[in-house]
Amino acid sequence: MKKIAVLNILLISFLAFILASCERDVDELRMRDAFVGSWRVVENTVPSSRDIQEAYIVNITPSPIFANEVEMVNFYAMGFDFKVPAVIENQEITINTFESDDYTFSGKGKLSNNQKSIEWVYTVEDPYGDKRTYNSEFTRL
């Protein structure tokens, strides 16, 4: 009888753990989906200089592997075959240090304006070692 009670407690604990894990995954998907879409980017170097302002389009797509990650297509206007991965946590998006095509990217953004914009600060190091910091605003199209 004690054995059955212990097994029931273990089974209930296991099911509670599984349900909590599923709920977290749903929340991660919901937050990730708030970032997914096409965005118009206005990018300024820091310190701000109007003559180095860039504007281009970035598409943010869900990661095919992780529920809390996205891929940013055409980030830094590198082309539509170029993707930069980012991690979503709550209302923030983070580019952990990512290297590709001899460029290094890192930075953070925050979803704002009722999920219609992302305010970014990120750093890009080019193949020649020139490192620049950018403030940019992504506006949902």
Polypeptide structure, described:
There is one protein chain. The chain is of the alpha+beta class. The chain has one helix spanning 2-35, and strands spanning 37-45, 54-62, 69-73, 83-89, 92-100, 103-112, 117-125, 131-140. The model is unreliable at 18-24 (pLDDT under 50). It is built from 1 helix and 8 strands; from the N terminus they run αββββββββ. An 8-stranded antiparallel beta barrel has the order 1-2-3-4-5-6-7-8. It has a single domain (2-140), classed as Quinohemoprotein amine dehydrogenase alpha subunit, domain 2 (Lipocalin).
Task: Characterize this entry briefly.
With 141 residues, this protein is an alpha+beta fold. The protein has one domain (2-140): Lipocalin, CATH 2.40.128. 24% of the residues lie in helices and 48% in strands.
CATH topology label: Lipocalin
Q: What structural category characterises the helix and strand content?
A: alpha+beta
SS summary, helix count: 1
Report the end-to-end length measured between terminal Cα atoms. 63 Å
